[in-house]
Amino acid sequence: CAGVQGRGRGHTICLIFVFFYMGTCQTTCEPEGPGPEADQLETTQTIPIADEMIPAGPGSVAISEDAALTREGKNDQLQRIREEGFCAVLDSKDYRKTLGLYGVRANLENIRDATAKMNGMIGRVVCNESFDGSHIIGLFTSLEFAQGDIPGHEGKLASCYLWEEKKVVTFASIPLPLLVEEDGVELVDTADLEALLEGAMGANVRGTKVKSMIRSPNPKGIRALVNQQMEIADKAHSMGLIAVLHLEVDIHAPEKAKCEKKLLEILLSDLTLLGEKMVMLVMTVPNKPNTWLPLVRHPNVLRVLALSGGYSRSDACKMLAQNVAVVASFGRAFLEGTRFEQHDEEFTKLLGDTCREIMECSRSSPPLDEMKAKISTQDGFVVALDQSASETTKALQRYGVSTEELSDQQVTEKMQEFMQRLVSNPSFGGTRVIAAIMHEQNMGVMVGEKSLPEYLWETKNVIPILKVDVGVKPESMGVQLMGEVPNLAEMTDKALQNKIFALKTRSVVHKPNMAGIQALVEQQIDFSRDILAKGLVPFLQIEVSKSSDRVGCEQMLKKVLAEKLGDLRQDEKIMLDLTVPEVTNTYLSLIGHPNIIRLTAHSGGKGQKESCLLLEKNVDLIASFGRAFTEGLHVDHTEEEFTQVLDHSIDNIFTASTVVPVKEIQINKIHMSDGFFAALDQDAKTSLRGYCVDLETRDDKSLEVALREMQERILRDPAFNGSSCIAVSFSEDIMGHEVDGMPVPRYAWESKQVVPFLKIDKGLQPDKNGVQLQKEHPNLNGLLDRANEVGIFGTKITGMIKLPNATGIKAVVDQQFSLARLCMAKNLVPMLQVEVDINSPKKAECEAMLCHFFLAALDTLGPGEQILLWLSIPSVPNRYLSLLGHPNVIRLAASSGGKKVSEACRLLSENVGMIAGFGRAMFDSLEEDMSEYTFSQMLEINSMAIFEASRAAPAKQAQMAKIIDQDGLIATFDQSGIDKITDVLSKYGVEPASQEEKINEQVHSMRDRIIRCPKFNGSRILAIVLTDDSMAREIGRMLAPRYLWEVKRIVPLLKIEEGHYPEKDGVQLMRGVNNFHVAMKKAAAFGCLGVKFRSIIRKPIAGGIKAAVDQQIEVAKQCLSKGLLPFMHLEVSSDATDKSSCERILRQALMGALRQIGKNEKVGLQLSVPETSDVYRPLVEHEKTARVACLSGGSLQKQAVQQLAQNPGMVAGFGRALMEGLTYNQTDNEFTSTLENSVKAIFQASCRDTPVQEPKKKTTTGIKVKKVPSPGKAASGSNESPAITVRETLAVAGG
User: Fold this and answer.
1) Smallest Cα–Cα separation from 326: which of 316, 335, 336?
2) Positive or negative, the Cα torsion across 688, 692, 698, 702?
3) Which DSSP string do the residues of 616-655 spell out, in sequence order?
């Protein structure tokens, strides 16, 4: 017994009587204070005895000879680690946090007390009946716990108890302190390593784990960290322990994915140094799923484990489930929900549920699923070992085997010997070779005791693919179709038995004949459906022969493939193997297609060096080489020589398949970097006038010389560099000039890291229809070819608009896109520069019309056809936000319009997302006679001013600007409640599951397909409202809110709702308002801009409606205080009594309530479509409303759109009306077309009208005009008159 001194009143409050029985105790006491401690229990319960778990020190329980593991026992544990299950982690040294989660407070000044409580918690967990080998294969625990015994099993080490009673393997976490961060990593202090390893041996654990931390992708630091871990592993191995390398990447690291990629690269090179020794790896769940896949079957890796990373158990399990063959090693996520005060029954049930949940996400995947993950995500290449009978002889001859006197059978045997030698070589393995294609006749080849397919996968971790074509038909319509495969059913059955992943077919294109290529692709797609029906993956090889017009063939093939792939359903996925294209990145638009698992390229008969050089220029294209792969191998090579040549070939092809091309680096720089574009493409007189050159005293030739000198001076100056300047455009005449022995464009990139563009115009045509088109270039094709040769990244195309003439503006846009396609065909990225004359009397109207035509033209581009825009700074700020949200627009720059740098920067800063594309403003105040120092200082000042004006706005600011200023609609995918969800699923053509979790997965799958559709993007969609379940899930390997904003440029909003009270005074108020702060915190953590919450109005009772509005306003103020945008959803029920009266009362109540919103604060409103048109106009125009959205009210899309159109200024907030017509069984083309039509129809009804200059006049079409609010505040200094609009103008103008 013991007396516990009460801290509060200074007297003894209880006695604790401890009764020992089977390692548990009955404790009874009165609670003191609000928080339970180990010595303060509110109830009588059974818990492990903490103090009995405390060891006296290392080796406090001696190992008897019987307790020590035998060799057989060690092997049994080794086998156990490989079995199904996961590892629990109970090794935290952060006692305060861990015990706090468990509901216990510990005195950290008393180490013995804290350790006792920690060990008591661990003891309770491991002694529980739910903690056993049916789910758990291993336990990572502290050395102190491992060295102690288990209550009720005195004299027996914890590790022995866990193995004998639970079949759980014990690992000790070695508590080596982390050193101060250096080179982006935290190494460990190894001073006490040997003593601690000896202690681990004394505890009879099977292995030891040492933790180190990575915080930045510094190769030097990561190399040092891995080297230290390998040295620790060597010492552990020397003592008979399994080494567990805990290589944690900080989840908050700004470049976490890069850290993981660099860590993988170094591990793959260093693990082979272990020889026959094996290690276990504990890693962070990667940003890119399946990043660790090359390690999973590595010959030196026993198991790859993933940490929960501080995420909740649910989130950690969802993330882990996306990583094939990686198992959980969870700590806090494992203990989540356990509490000190829980009764045994409750504790046991919770622990059992936890084990089952973690076990589910740790289960091994079927081989075909693992292969699919590997082929779709892993870096590497494919090897073609599928030579036909006629090709085999040539392959052997290249290998140095004389085949003249060999029979067909002997040729086959020799080829099989070559193949056996090749695949069994130590250099040939799944870390670099992803898959190998074999011919049917080689399926039975034995490598050791395994068939070739079995050996490739199980021993080498290389995916086996079977070639099934029997040759091609004679040429017809410029193509050779695939020959009929008479025994396809038999072959697919045989492939499945041999665990073949894919079946490869082949056809050939000879001429750019559209009918022939269409027939070829249709045959391949039809054939692929037969393969898919058998559960295998089609691998379609389409070879473009050495045609006289290969470029024409490839362009036509790309177009047809893009069209025909859309005929596949979303679950029908294929692989494509195409010839390395003549024009770099021809097939870029196909990469990432939802129906393509991976796109490979064969060498087309070229040698290895040439093939690799061509391949490495193509973004994300990987090799599928045969002859180029075996090049240089010879039958007379010694094994050492053979290995050396093979390793060199593998390394070359792997590098060519994984290297990041310069083009991709430049695209990423343009897309992601803060900075501006500079224009060095003006004519001599325009440029030199600002440079203070005397134009009168110089002839044209001397002016050109002076211009070159000025441009070179700017380029060479240290202030001009890629840290602030992203790109620069040059005129055509600079192409022949050099700086430091390099062509000027190449100098800009290689010396300055500034991306070079070429202006390709020959001036502008005379004014016609209010515009000036670009003059025709007499030798444009030749110019574009030369541009590629000197390192030009893209082209700049120009045009000028002076008046809002629909015919003229459409002609400008049409010409721009026609030239853009020509440039893209030459692998150049087009930049479309269309200026609106700053002196135009109707500049704002010109800009609105230009935006409309650009948006329509952008919709005609394919997924990989990306452009840049260079436009005038708009009169109405944020006019071009819809263009910024389009997936085909990489970046949008603004010209200075001849203004001085300070004024241009001020106007630019009012436009979120736009960056400077300045010429004269960039070089403002630079003079020819300046000293180099003064020149450089002035250029630096201008550059920094423009850089700051171009800097990306914070996400919240950009999202608010989008909500307030951009035309568009809000997608409400927030249906909740079983009845509503099952109704939505039924209309989508999916039979709802019986379990709620499965239903949520079905709903997310449907929403995922909609959101990832190319036509669902930020150009027309402002925001999306989702439930917390959908927000917590992933889309495109990213958490949904992040994917929505970063990829789609759509603002994420979270719906919060806990139901409604029964109707009172004609309304239903919200329940659970006091708990909304939890959901708001979650919304902020998700990265949502705001939250939406709903009340329902059923009768026109003023008191009730005011109460509903008051409640909404109070929640809105709470949101605003947390930095969130509140969307107040006040729904007037469609069956409400006297709906019109309800709406009028609601309007007045809201107008009054909005006075409570702060001066610089705004709220969003979502209201039912009103009975009386325009009744909510005062709310639309109110300065405190960010946007007013209109519900579809359950109406069909056509009716909802018509109703919305009667309420100018309101935007759609549609859910079911937006999803109308979408079904699960639609092909991608059908699905995309349906969704695109819906989005466009709803967008048109949501648009603000185009401003025009003449008030209350009829247009030539006789359409009446009506006053509506301006889309946004006009830029300072603008002379625009108050906007009056014509809703139908856009449609008349060609929309």
Assistant:
1) 316
2) negative
3) TTSTT-EEEESHHHHTT--TT--HHHHHHHHHHHHHHHHH
What is the DSSP secondary structure assignment for residue 1195, as one 8-state letter? -
Residue 575 falls in which region: left (phi positive, over 0), alpha (psi -120 to 50) or beta = beta
The pLDDT tens digits for 420-456 are: 999 999 999 999 999 999 988 888 889 989 999 999 9
Q: Which of 702, 703, 698, 701 is nearest to 686 (CA)?
A: 703
- 504, 468 Cβ separation under 8 angstroms: yes
Structure confidence by residue, pLDDT tens digits, 393-404: 888 999 999 988
Question: Own/partner pairs for 699-705, CB < 8 Å, 24+ apart?
Answer: 704/733
Looking at residue 1212, the DSSP 8-state letter turns out to be E
Helices (H), 378-513: 389-398, 408-423, 452-454, 488-497
**Could you give the 3-state DSSP secondary structure of residue 741?**
coil
- Tell me how far CA of residue 238 lies from CA of 197, 234, 282, in angstroms: 10, 6, 21
- Model confidence over 982-1014: pLDDT tens digits? 899 999 999 998 888 889 889 999 999 999 999
Task: Name 552's Cβ contacts closer than 8 Å, sequence gap at least 6.
Answer: 512
Residues making up the chain, counted from first to last:
1295
| 349 has a pLDDT exceeding 60 | yes
Contact 1129, 1092 (CB under 8 A): yes
Query: Is the model's pLDDT at 1286 over the cut of 60?
Result: no
| Least confidently predicted of 146-155, 437-446, 653-662 | 146-155
Is the CB of residue 288 less than 8 Å from the CB of residue 1036? no
Say which amino acid occupies 1047.
V
Q: DSSP character for 951?
A: S
Closest CA to 1125 of 881, 911, 959, 1247: 959
161: which residues sit within 8 A by CB, 6+ positions away? 126, 149, 150, 153
Pairing of β 327-330 and β 381-385: unpaired
- Between 1094 and 387, where is the model more confident? 1094
Write the secondary structure of 1050-1097 as one string of H (helix), E (strand) and C (coil). CEEEEECCCCECCCECCEECECCHHHHHHHHHHHHHHCCCEEEEEEEE
User: Band of the pLDDT at 95, cuts 50, 70, 90?
Assistant: low
Over residues 812-830, the pLDDT tens digits come to 999 999 999 999 999 999 9
Q: Is the dihedral of CA 407, 409, 414, 418 positive or negative?
A: positive
- Residue 1222 pLDDT: 96
Residue 64 clears pLDDT 60, i.e. is over it? no
Separation between Cα atoms, residue 323 and residue 1205, nearest integer Å:
47
Q: What is the pLDDT of residue 1252?
A: 36
Q: How far is CA 98 from the centre of its chain?
A: 32
Q: Which residues contact 1075 (CB under 8 A, 6 or more apart)?
A: 1058
Q: Helix or strand or coil: residue 473?
A: coil
Q: Which residues contact 1285 (CB under 8 A, 6 or more apart)?
A: 1248, 1249, 1250, 1251, 1252, 1265, 1266, 1267, 1268
What does the pLDDT read at residue 1272?
38
Q: Compute the half-sphere exposure of residue 826: CA atoms within 13 Å on the CB side of its CA.
A: 22
From the number of C-beta atoms within 10 Å of its C-beta (0-12, 13-18, 19+), residue 785 rates as: exposed
DSSP assignment, residue 803? S
| Partner residues linked to 171 by β-bridges | 140, 207
Q: 905-932 burial, b for 16+ CB within 10 Å, e for fewer?
A: bbbbbbbbbbbbbbbbbbbbbbeeebee
Which residue, 308, 310, 353, 304, is CA-closest to 324?
304
* Cα 1061 to Cα 1067: distance, rounded to the nearest angstrom: 9
Mean pLDDT over all residues of the chain? 86
What tokens appear for 570 in the block? 């979303």
